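[audit] Reproducing an earlier prediction to check determinism. Same input, same settings, fresh worker. If the tokens differ from the archived copy the diff job will pick it up downstream; this log only records the rerun itself.
[audit] input (127 residues):
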Amino acid sequence: MQHIKKSLLIAFISSVFLMSAIVFYRFTSVELALLNQAQNTLASYSAHLVLLKEKKKVLEKDEAIIKNIDTKVVTNFKVSLTSSSFKQLINEINNFYGSGIVVVNNAKIQSSNGTLNCTIEGFRLGL
């Protein structure tokens, strides 16, 4: 009878140990899965942050370029008064201010000796 009690006690202790090992294994495997998921999430956030930093650098570079665009310009040109003088005047202005928005502060047009003298003062916004 004593051997049976010892055998049952050993079986009980073994089963408790085995159950605790199984529970511990399940717990660690769940924790490991959660850890792997967290690492993957952090890696994706890290990649996203790198992408955002690159975009920020591009935007800062563009901002620096745009800040330097607002420069004062003074344009002087002469056009002969012929039938194509207005076309030539428009082409001269278009060639000089080819892109962006031109803000004119002062414009003077004077005519003397068959020549149209134009002076435009302002600044250009844009590239």
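[audit] rerun output stored. Observation attached for the diff report: The longest helix spans residues 2-67.
[audit] end
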